[in-house]
Amino acid sequence: MAADLAELIAATAQGDQRAFEELYQATSPTLYALAMAVLRNADHAQEVLQEAYINIWRSAASYSADKGSVQIWLNVIVRRRCIDRLRHAPAPTDELSLMDWSAIEAQEPSPLQLVQADADAADLARCMQGLGAPQQRALSLAYFHGLTHRELAKKLKLPLGSVKSQVRRGLENLRRCLHHATV
């Protein structure tokens, strides 16, 4: 195979496109695997491989068997292209910018907000307990389990209008209870 590659690179140096195609067919899987191992990105590996083969076409005459096998020479070309790509790539996006941190901090509730949320949850639980069983079940299924009014009617085996009334009355009773809890 090494002799074949040497013949193909010599023919490529003479401008033989068919030899270059054969060289590509014989070596591209190995060179692509090398680029993937270094870059860990299929698109970048493909681009580097394309650039490398353009370089190989243009500089095939500079290959010297004294410096090593054709495969090693090709590997060096691809490896150098990969290193160039990594050097000129933008900084990794794993690190968050200061703007990202401020957005995250703005989303985090303050200790006061956490205490208030706990109090609100306790008030809601107390008010839910004060509802009648049909309203409690309808609201729980609608808002905590995400069922639509139609799904509620089917699950509770009630007419759609009755389910809508239970949900509406339950919400009104909750609103009144929660209003009294905050006053």
Walk me through the structure.
The protein has 183 residues and is an all-alpha fold. The protein is 79% helix and 0% strand. It has two domains: 87 residues, Rna Polymerase Sigma Factor, Chain: A (Orthogonal Bundle); 74 residues, Arc Repressor Mutant, subunit A. The model has no long low-confidence stretch (mean pLDDT 85). One of its GO terms (biological process) is DNA-templated transcription initiation. This is RNA polymerase sigma-70 factor (ECF subfamily). Belongs to the sigma-70 factor family. ECF subfamily. InterPro entries: RNA_pol_sigma-70-like (IPR039425), RNA_pol_sigma-70_dom (IPR014284), RNA_pol_sigma70_r2 (IPR007627), RNA_pol_sigma70_r4_t2 (IPR013249), RNA_pol_sigma_r2 (IPR013325), RNA_pol_sigma_r3/r4-like (IPR013324), WH-like_DNA-bd_sf (IPR036388).
Provide the CATH architecture of the largest domain: Orthogonal Bundle
Q: How many DSSP E strands? A: 0
Strand content: under 5%
Q: The biggest beta sheet, please?
A: none
Q: Enter the CATH topology name of the largest domain.
A: Rna Polymerase Sigma Factor, Chain: A
Contiguous uncertain segments of 5+ residues: none
Compute the CA-based radius of gyration.
35 Å
Distance between the termini: 88 Å
Helix content: over 70%
The tally of structural domains comes to: 2
Any idea of the CATH class of the largest domain? Mainly Alpha
Order of helical and strand elements = HHHHHHHHH
Mean pLDDT level:
85
Q: At the fourth CATH level, what is the homologous superfamily of the largest domain?
A: RNA polymerase sigma factor, region 2, helix turn helix motif
Briefly note the structural class of the backbone.
mainly alpha
Number of helices: 9
Q: What general form does the structure show?
A: rod-shaped
